[in-house]
Backbone:
């Protein structure tokens, strides 16, 4: 047994809204006791000075993309559909080194910004590989961060998935995007099975899941194949549902109902299921998700950056949907700052109407970014709280930082004031990862050199893909908004045929 005692800090209880002075005793990777200051400890306990620190449960990022980190800042005015069109440019030609680096870069950013676990929907072209997923897993393990890694998969390309889009493209572009066709579903499902069988990481630290990326980018048989794998291996399922208006309209065109109703009819909803975004969910969709005990990963930054809209988190909570909060990938966020995501979650709820009683409270936003996200990751009984029996995933904020002067209210300031700059130390699973702003697990100078070399190589390798995007942009950028306009009447929180 190894014991650590964090002495002299104030321990945040989000639900109670308090931050009382307390010491935390950690045994191996688990919190044993949250005791009164100076409480007795085993003789061999290592003492860690947490004086003038606010200790809060590590934030949990319910939705990100490890592959997105090398693509941060590559675009500006991108709708979701333009982002998908840009994928070959910003994510193409990735080597094993790039896959590792991109994920590690994001893990480093998350940890130094107070996030200790994430749900990563990892993409590999043209299909996931056991090696690629192992590299992503190694990237998190090397940083010392907890992660759920879900291969993000489909059996239809974006151009096949959006009704009429292929026909709207001029012939030469049709030929080009035909090359983006995906392998048959059997090949992709076999690749996932292969990766799952060989999974070598401790599942409490780095566990797999499955992510049929967007419902209409997948045949029904493929979605069911993913769900079957998840059942067989006891995994979560994560999908981008009702993210953009184009998606909502496409779902109705294809299924005659919403994407969520369709997924329900396929039998894939349940407590293990996470909807990413859910901007265009209607009340019935939310009720279905709530009844199934499913989660929504709310990504307010990405939803605004891509013009997807403002998700109605109050309506979700009213229907017992488990609410988590995420940043989304750095290719559309463009950072991995969970404090910002919490703050935006609060603000987005507040711009939706004058009835302040429907606004999210800071307590609700903070609970969503900890306990709610933890439940979405399938780790609700292990992370997201500072309490005996929970994993020692603990962030220590510097109470001498201007963010905390004066110290008026711990939860309001955590959500509305903190931006990551007061993060002093971070412990994950009882292991110190960041010690008074010094990252202990990764050589940042070496990471910088490798990342810049990758950027240069990828810019050259994807020059043609960039030109392809520039040719596609005017067509996709006018066709998709048109599709979203007519002939459907879009209600405030959903889409219905007129
Ligand atoms: Zn996403």
Residues:
């Amino acid at each position: 047994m190894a014991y650590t005692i964090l002495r002299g800090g104030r321990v945040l209880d989000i639900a109670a809204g308090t931050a009382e002075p307390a010491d935390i005793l950690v045994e191996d990777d688990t919190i044993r006791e949250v005791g009164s200051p100076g409480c007795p400890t085993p003789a061999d306990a290592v003492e860690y000075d947490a004086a003038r620190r606010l200790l809060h449960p590590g934030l949990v990022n319910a939705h990100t993309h490890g592959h997105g980190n090398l693509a941060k800042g590559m675009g500006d005015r991108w709708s979701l559909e333009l982002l998908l069109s840009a994928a070959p440019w910003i994510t193409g030609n990735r080597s094993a080194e790039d896959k590792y680096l991109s994920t590690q870069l994001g893990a480093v950013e998350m940890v130094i910004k107070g996030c200790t676990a994430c749900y990563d929907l990892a993409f590999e072209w043209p299909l996931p590989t056991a090696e690629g997923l192992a590299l992503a897993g190694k990237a998190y393990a090397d940083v010392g961060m907890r992660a759920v890694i879900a291969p993000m998969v489909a059996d239809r390309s974006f151009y096949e998935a959006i009704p009429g889009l292929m026909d709207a493209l001029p012939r030469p572009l049709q030929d080009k995007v035909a090359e983006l066709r995906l392998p048959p579903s059997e090949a992709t499902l076999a690749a996932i099975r292969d990766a799952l069988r060989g999974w070598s990481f401790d599942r409490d630290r780095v566990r797999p899941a499955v992510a049929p990326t967007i419902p209409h980018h997948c045949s029904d048989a493929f979605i069911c194949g993913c769900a079957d794998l998840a059942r067989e291996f006891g995994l979560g399922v994560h999908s981008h549902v009702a993210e953009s208006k184009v998606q909502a309209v496409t779902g109705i065109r294809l299924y005659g109902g919403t994407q969520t109703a369709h997924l329900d009819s396929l039998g894939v909803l349940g407590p293990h299921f996470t909807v990413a975004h859910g901007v265009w969910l209607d009340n019935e969709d939310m009720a279905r998700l709530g009844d199934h005990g499913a989660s929504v990963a709310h990504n307010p930054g990405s939803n605004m950056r891509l013009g997807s809209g403002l998700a109605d988190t109050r309506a979700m909570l009213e229907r017992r949907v488990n609410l988590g909060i995420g940043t989304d990938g750095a290719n559309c966020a463009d950072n991995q700052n969970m404090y910002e995501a919490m703050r935006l979650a609060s603000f987005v709820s507040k711009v939706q109407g004058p009835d302040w009683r429907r606004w999210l409270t800071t307590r609700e936003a903070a609970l969503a970014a900890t306990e709610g996200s933890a439940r979405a990751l399938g780790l609700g009984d292990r992370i997201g709280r500072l309490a005996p029996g929970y994993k020692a995933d603990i962030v220590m904020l510097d109470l001498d930082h201007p963010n905390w002067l004066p110290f008026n209210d711990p939860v309001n300031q955590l959500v509305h004031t903190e931006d990551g700059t007061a993060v002093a130390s971070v412990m994950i699973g009882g292991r110190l990862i960041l010690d008074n702003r010094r990252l202990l697990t990764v050589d940042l100078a070496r990471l910088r050199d490798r990342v810049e070399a990758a950027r240069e190589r990828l810019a050259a390798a994807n020059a043609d893909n960039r030109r392809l995007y520039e040719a596609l942009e005017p067509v996709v950028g006018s066709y998709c908004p048109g599709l979203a306009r007519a002939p459907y009447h879009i209600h405030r929180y959903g889409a219905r045929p007129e």
